[in-house]
Amino acid sequence: MTAGTSGHGHGHGAAALVDHRTRLVVVLGITLAVLVAEVVGAAVTGSLALLADAGHMLTDVAGLTLAYVAAVLARRPPTEQRTWGYRRAEVIAAAAQAAVLLAVGGFVLVEGVRRLLDPPEVTAGGMLVFGMIGLAGNVVSLAVLAGVRRADLNLRAAFLEVLNDAVGSLAVLVAAAVIALTGWLQADAVASLLIGALIVPRTLRLLGESVNVLMEATPRGLDLTAVRQRLLVHPHVHDVHDLHVSQVATGLPVLTAHVVVDDSCFHDGHLGPMLDELQRCLDQDFDIEHSTIQFEAGAHADHEHETHA
Q1: Measuring CA to CA, how many Å separate 165 from each of 63, 68, 123, 181, 307?
Q2: Helices 153-182 & 21-45, crossing angle to 10 degrees?
Q3: In the chain, what's the furthest Cα-to-Cα distance?
Q4: Residues with Cβ < 8 Å from 309, sequence gap 6 or more?
């Protein structure tokens, strides 16, 4: 019986993030400033649309913060107590943020419906001013990220989040213009409902992805049956069981498997090359760099615990 783990280097993703940390910090600072301005604007003008857009901005502050924290924590070395370092902190923080943001989105939707039925007075001029501040901040942030948005998934996600923010700021401006020109106060509620509709699906998706990682579910998009079949293709492999694939954090899937092979493989030197071949195919075909494979003889199944499958 022999077990093996892959020995590939895994620093390339962290290095790419670190190269652009300054841009993330700049955009985070701008987004945070606009968030504060819109909260103040909502208090001054009574606009739910501004408050909803601030909630939308909060989702982006959370996403940008996680992107930056992931870049920093990814470089912290593992220890005897934390063998994966602090990679899981990203997922825990994302789940907590999603829970808070879901509450914000729910409040905006409920309050938006109430204001449709009984609209309060709203200061259109103030909405225009603070809406323009929000849009200006979004445009600057887009300019900062535009040149590097394809560098990695974190930066691409950050760019799309800021782009969604710009849509929210435009909704605030349109609502303010409608109120100023027609006096139709419900425009504020309609804009807030639109922004709330942007917040809730994204938040549910983030919460679902975080819970899946914490529950050690199979990574999204990975076909476990295809993985099993790929391992079984090897001429000396008879069976694959106890096959598990989960994620430690974003972009870090790990696999463990028990592989039943010819009894002769334990005596003729096949196990070493076979381990290299199987782990190479897992890396190249399924992008699984971290894998642990335990080789077993056919008779070993008689000694396995009954819960193994």
Answers
A1: 12, 19, 22, 24, 49
A2: 20
A3: 87
A4: 241, 242
- The helix/strand count (H/E) of the chain reads as 9, 4
Determine the Cα–Cα distance for residues 149 and 17; give it in Å rounded to an integer.
12
pLDDT in tens, 92-149: 777 777 787 788 778 888 888 988 888 888 888 888 898 899 899 989 988 988 877 6
Q: Six-digit token pair at 34?
A: 């606009």
Q: In this structure, what token pair is assigned to residue 87?
A: 């990679």
Query: Which domains are delineated in the chain?
Result: 12-214 (1.20.1510), 219-303 (3.30.70.1350)
d(CA 277, CA 271): 10
- Residues 195-216, buried b or exposed e (16+ Cβ, 10 A)? bbebbbebbeebbebbebbeee
Higher pLDDT, 69 or 2: 69
Entry pTM: 0.67
For residue 284, which phi and psi values (nearest 5 degrees)?
A: -75, -40
Q: Which of 1, 2, 5 is nearest to 283 (CA)?
A: 5
Q: Decide the pairing of beta strands 290-296 and 2-5.
A: antiparallel
